[in-house]
Amino acid sequence: xxxxxxxxxxxxxxxxxxxxxxxxxxxxxxxxxxxxxxxxxxxxxxxxxxxxxxxxxxxxxxxxxxxxxxxxxxxxxxxxxxxxxxxxxxxxxxxxxxxxxxxxxxxxxxxxxxxxxxxxxxxxxxxxxxxxxxxxxxxxxxxxxxxxxxxxxxxxxxxxxxxxxxx
Length: 167
Hints:
Structural class: mainly beta
């Protein structure tokens, strides 16, 4: 019995063992221990908030789609994904329809395209979550917001930023 106890201890068991009563031929019994829950990973804080409610209907691919498309209804609010300043409200790029571009810092800008109506003007300071436009379809067959994040001028996949996986 002591040999069994020694072998179990040598194997690195973390469950305490009860020694049998003196004079008994029984082998040691394991005492059940409550299992501690696995440590929870902290939920990362996303530095970019979702710019609209609705399902993502088109994902970033870096070639044909430089952002994501989020479905919606005409007039649904489009929200600033992060604090920033409006650098342009334009319809100059036909492929994007009417759009708003925000500069957040020296690294990031965001673009909100195919909007029906802008609620902000150029040089206006906006806060994360503030309505900046209304969803539309400008030149498309359905209502959807096209959203891009550009890091140092290069389009990056917005989804990891929106999930808080990348800051």
